Amino acid sequence: RTFFRVLGGATLVSIAGGIGIFVYVTQKDRHPGSQLPYDPEKKTIVILGSGWGATSLLKTLDTSEYNVVMISPKNYFLFTPLLPSVAVGTLSPKAILQPTRYLARHKARAVTVIEAEAKEIDPFNKTVTFEDDTEIKGEVSHTTISYDYLVHAVGAEVQTFGIPGVQEKACFMKELSDAEIMQRRFKDCIESAAFPGQDSTEIDRLLHIVIVGGGPTGIEVSGEIHDFLEDDLKAWYPELAGRIRISLVEALPSVLPMFSKQLIEYTESTFKESKIEILTKTMVKEVKDKSVVLQMPDKSIQEVPCGMVVWAGGNKGRKITQDLMAQYPNVQTNRRGLTVDDQLRLAGADGSIFAIGDCTSTSYAPTAQVASQQGAYLARVFAQMAKKNTLQAKLNQLEQSEGAVTDTVDKANRKSEIETTRKLIANVKVRPFHYSHQGSLAYIGSDKAIADLPFANGNIASAGVATFLFWRSAYLSTLFSLRNRTLVANDWIITKIFGRDLSRD
Ligand code: FAD
Ligand code: NAI
């Protein structure tokens, strides 16, 4: 009995302690303290973007050493790995957003956060011109500012290859608005199929969903749509759900080329069980209002009726990135993106421009993992540069006043101090960026995920329900804030208990 009393007491104390810590952390987060003001003596870093690279940089950066300005058309960070879950309503949009100001207000020095799109970079005069592209504009909505250092972290945009109809008629899966549009269209297809008197062929067309691109985005979207169908639509649209068809079209001979062979096979067999049809060696040639034109493996052309097309065909550089490349026509020649050196400095520039994430072309895949490690690395580079600058200022001062020292002992001491400072400066080294791969993970639907995890000198491939639980816990812990973790965990529980929402706003 005593044992159970002690156990009960310890449990109560742990729960109370947990609640206490939760309340303390959330309240501390909600009520940020005062910050250092702008300091004209400090150098100014302008960061373009508020995605994986930029946010990771801001999070790690010691702002007491710099003035920081962050410019992005989105005033939030979007946790892209869970975007396909938003597209079917498993998660609410707010759960995977983190307003940039929540992070900026907790930095040592006030960070200027500007909701605007950078339009022009002048690397020779060190200026950035940006514009408020939103619906409501003030008297001033276009301006130019100077920078000492520029971090280009604008990501990439959807690559459509100029295929007719893709831009105008397909849904994408890149931004939050894309997920919201996809959800609305998908529900519209179902409600239109349920319209009284709808012809059977038309019902089949409306309920045919075509996903283009067998990369991780296309696979995850297919898996999520399948879950929505199995978990919810079968119950609420019993007469229609069985007619919903999901087709995944991929131009290459296999889906998920970045995963190991056994995981590709596992995904293909899971999709087969889930009745998701995979069409490999098949290329989308045109997206029409009510169909998609495919070039089949035998090169024949087929027009397939469908209700909706989701385009996940890859990425390309943004205009601002292409314009920056055009400033260095002899060096920036890689069409995949900006060329940087091993310290992420823009090749060809004077060392004041850095580029990270999907806008660069490196030997690494364009992933969140790479972008966030590059952001954190750059914060360390800036810390080293600040250290060097402080030591250099001290050295300048010591050298300038050296002549005024007359006493022999003081002279010798000064000489030794100068020598020590020089050595300290020489010791401030910036190591090259080194990427540490933590593994590749993807959700494939039916509560299953696949994972290629680095182990010793090789790889462990894992798949199934346990991997799905690992996938969930990995992403829950990767979310940037306690607020997001709470919202995501809450949505998962709510979806499990009550199912996904069917209403179409
Ligand atoms: P982004 O995160 O795209 O950020 C770019 C930022 O720049 C945005 O804030 C944007 O608003 C801003 N911007 C755009 N234009 C301008 C401009 N002109 N001026 C100023 N700012 C601008 N990777 C993984 O490693 N694991 C995953 O599980 C994973 N899942 C994904 C799921 C989906 C659906 C998608 C689409 C991607 C996924 N990725 C994943 C890839 C990952 O999201 C990207 O590699 C990552 O976002 C790249 O980070 P970034 O900082 O370069 O760009
Ligand atoms: P992707 O570039 O990886 O895949 C696009 C696919 O579309 C390619 O396989 C391509 O062959 C195919 N395609 C292009 N045009 C086509 C056409 N006309 N017809 C048929 N198929 C066509 O793009 P994705 O999936 O958006 O991924 C982008 C980046 O984000 C990758 O680096 C990826 O690793 C990363 N990512 C990672 C995730 C994860 O780790 N879970 C999830 C989502 C993205």
UniProtKB/TrEMBL annotation:
GO (cellular component) term, any one: mitochondrion
Molecular function GO labels: NADH dehydrogenase (quinone) (non-electrogenic) activity
Bilayer-spanning residue ranges: 3-25
Domain of life, per lineage: Eukaryota
Swiss-Prot/TrEMBL keywords: FAD, Flavoprotein, Membrane, NAD, Oxidoreductase, Transit peptide, Transmembrane, Transmembrane helix
Entry EC number(s): 1.6.5.9
Domain External alternative NADH-ubiquinone oxidoreductase-like C-terminal: residue ranges: 437-501
Name of the featured protein: NADH:ubiquinone reductase (non-electrogenic)
Species, as recorded: Lentinula guzmanii
